[in-house]
Amino acid sequence: MSGQEQVVVAVHNLHRTFGTKVALANVSLDIRRGGVYGLVGGNGAGKTTLIRHILGLFTPQAGSVMVFGINPVVNPPAVLSRIGFLAEDRDIPGWMRVHELLSYTRAFYPDWDPAFAEELRDMFELPPGQKVQSLSRGQIARAGLLLALAHRPELLVLDEPSSGLDPVVRRDILSAIIRTVADEGRTVLFSSHLLDEVERVADRVAMLHAGRIVLDESLEQLKSKQRIMTLRFAVPQSAPPILTGAIPLNGAGKEWTCVCEDAELVRMAAGSLGVEVIGESAASLEEIFMARSSKG
Ligand code: ATP
Q1: Residues 21 and 152 in one domain
Q2: Which of 121, 190, 215, 218 could form a disulfide with 158 if both were Cys (CB 3.0 to 4.6 A apart)?
Q3: Count of structural domains, the chain
Q4: If you measure from the C-alpha of residue 211 to the centroid of ligand 1, how many angstroms do you get, rounded to a whole number?
C-alpha cells in the first residue's frame, strides 16, 4: 500500500469563516489508516466545523478535503457509506423504537453487521421495544455509538463521544471500542475536550485553538519531548518570564512553572541566565494544551 493510500483524510489549507468569524484558518492535517486521532480544543475552537467538512456537509471556502481519495462534497455516498459518524447532538428520531432504529439505519449500509449490532445492543442495555424518546441520556449516547459502529466502518468519526456517557462506560467501553477499531486496521477520528481521555486512547493528537492547528503530533513523541519544569529566578519576575523553549503555565515572583518542548534547550538557557531548575516531571496533555492555548 502506498503512502498516499495510507492517508484516509487529507485536509489542506482549509479555511472557513461564518460572517466575520474565522472558524478554521488554513488547517492542514493528514489522518492515516489504522490510528486513533484525537482532535482537541476548547469551546468554539473549530472541531465540529472541521468534522462537517470531512463529512462533506460544508464545501471548503478555500483549501481542500479528501476522504479515501474522494471529494466528499462531490461524491457523498462513496464517502459516507464507509464512515460511521456519531454527532455531538445525537440526532436520533425519538418516536422510533430501538429495533426500528436498527432496521431503519441498516437499510443505508450494505455492510451492516446484524450480529454485531445485536451484540452492541445487548452490551449497551438498549431494550429493543423501547422508544428512543424514553431512553435515558446515556442510553441515547450509546444508541448513537451503536449506529456509528454496526456497519464496521473504515473510518469512525466521533464528535464528543463521551458527552452523556457515564464515567464507567466512557472509560471502559468507549476506550475499548476505539482501540479495537484501530487494532483491526480501521481509523478513528474523535473530538473531545476531555484531555485525559484523549491521552488514554489516541495515537496522535491535533490541537485546534481559535481555528488554527497549534499542535499535530504523535502522543508518544509529544509525551517524550514535553516536560514540566519549575524554575527559580534570581530576582522576582513581575510578568510571566520569557525563556527560549519554555511556556509559563503559572507562577509568581521568583518561581515559575513552565511547559518545555525541549528540556535540554531550556536547561541551557536557564544556566546561561543564572536561573535554577528546581523541579522537573512529565507533562500531561492538559498542561501541554494549556500552554499551547495561551501561546496560540
Ligand atoms: P464546541 O466544543 O463548543 O462544540 P467546536 O470546537 O466544535 O466547539 P465549532 O462548533 O466548530 O467549534 O465552532 C467554531 C466557531 O465557528 C465558533 O465560534 C462557532 O460559534 C462558529 N460557528 C460554527 N458553526 C456556525 C454556524 N453555522 N454559523 C455561525 N457560526 C458558526
Answers
A1: yes
A2: 190
A3: 2
A4: 9
- Which of 179, 200, 219 is the endpoint of a domain? 219
The residue contributing the CA closest to ligand 1 atom 21 is 23
Are residues 234 and 275 both part of a single domain?
yes
**184 has a pLDDT exceeding 90:** no
- What integer pLDDT is reported at residue 70 of this predicted model? 96
| Same domain (yes/no): 137, 22 | yes
Residues 182, 134: one domain? yes
Q: pTM here?
A: 0.86
Closest residue by CA, ligand 1 atom 30: 18
Final residue of a structural domain among 198, 219, 240: 219
Q: Which structural domain range is residue 209 located in?
A: 3-219
Residue 79 and residue 174 share a domain: yes
Mean pLDDT, to the nearest integer, of 206-232? Answer: 90
Closest residue to atom 17 of ligand 1, CA basis: 44
Predicted confidence band of residue 5 (pLDDT cuts 50, 70, 90): low
> What is the torsional sign of CA 136, 148, 88, 289?
positive
pLDDT value at residue 295: 61
